[in-house]
Structure formats: C-alpha cells, structure tokens
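Our consortium's second objective concerns turning raw sequence data into structural hypotheses that experimental partners can test. To show how far this objective has progressed, the report includes one record in full. It was chosen at random from the queue rather than selected for favorable results. The single chain below, 231 residues long, was entered without modification.
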Amino acid sequence: MKLFFGEIDNGKALINEEEQQHIVKVLRMKDGEQIHITDGKGNVASGKLIIEGKKAEIEVTEIKTGTADFSTKLHIAIAPTKNIDRIEFFVEKAVEMGISEITLLQTEKTERKNLNIDKIKKQAIAASKQSLRFHFPIINDLVKLPDFLKNVNSDTTFVAHCNENLERINLNEIPKLESYTFLIGPEGDFSDKEILFLAEKGIKAVSLGNQRLRTETAGVFVAAWNYEKMI
C-alpha cells in the first residue's frame, strides 16, 4: 500500500502539498498508480494517481471512514534529551507501536528548553504512514511538569523513575486499562522533589526492570509493553 497524507471531505481527497512534491520529484510516480490518502483521523481514500506537471491528484474510487484505531490509548509525557536525535528515535518507534499521544515534558533537570515541534510532528506523520496508521498521534509542545499534571487522571497515570529507595510497582502489575499515561524523566531522572510531588498527586511509581534505561529507551520500552498487550 502506498499511503500519503492529505485532506478528505465530502467524497473528495486532496494530497498534502509536500506529499505532492515527494510523489512527483522523489518517488517519480506515474499516472494511474494506485494510491491511498489518509487524513490521520481514521479516514482513508483510495484511487488512481493523476500527475499534472508538478501537481499530484487522486481520482477517488473509494473512501472508508471511521477505521479502527488501537484499542488501548497510550499517552507518554517524556523529557526531551539534550541530543534531540534520541527523542526523535523514540517518537518514530513509539508511533509505529501505536502510541496515541506524546507530550514533551519540562522538568527541573531537562537541559533542552527549545524544540522544533513542527519537525517532530512531521516525523510522527512519516512514521504513521510507514506503519500504515490511519490515526495519527497527538504531539504536544514542551510543557512544565506542574502544568501537565493539572489535566491528568491519577488513577491511570504512572511515573517511571530510578529511585530504588522509594516504593515502585512492577510494570506488569498494572491492571489492564482503556488508557494509560506514563511520565518519563530526563537524563539524571526526576528530582527527589518532583518524585515526592508526583506521589502527593496520587501518581503511582513503576519500575522498568533492574537495568537503568536511557530516557528514550524507557519510552520505547513502555510503548512496546503497551503494544504487546494489544496484539
């Protein structure tokens, strides 16, 4: 399946402008090839490609609406790493494994304060297309920890930290829920103050095993744990 991003409305589909350039200049696709367009909201248009100069259009033959998404919703709030390539790696892999939402989290020890959020969103779209996802995840810009906690349900929210002196449950002890929110700290982990603050908010701490995982590895680990529960 050749899947591209675009808009779908009233029985018509419009290929995103950047996608058109990719189709014409990079992929060098030809008239009549079968393609599929998704709007990232669960709708998919199928049809034949029409090339007109530098423009690419689709002659729609079928539109499917409301396609099924992953059964469990996973939201990971993760502190961006100093080397942005590592967090971009996490985004790509987590999207492929069905994550529903990603929030970049600013903590006391977060070194990176500036992000190209548009680039990260484009990477999430690319990973969605590559893995044939018709529901694109939500990508939220950098938010401070206290502000993020204002809108979470403590019953379905968990924090992965490395403080062995505080009580943590095993990841596999978490009951099956319809949705999960996980907080992943920065290089150097959450501060003791933040960990206690999270505990006061009723957010349960979890252990991801005996090894100390890098930030992006911990994020991928949680995404894989959730993905395994859905297949």
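The partners drew two points from this record. The first helix runs from residue 17 to 26. DSSP finds six helices and twelve strands in the chain. Both points have been shared with the crystallography group to help prioritize constructs.
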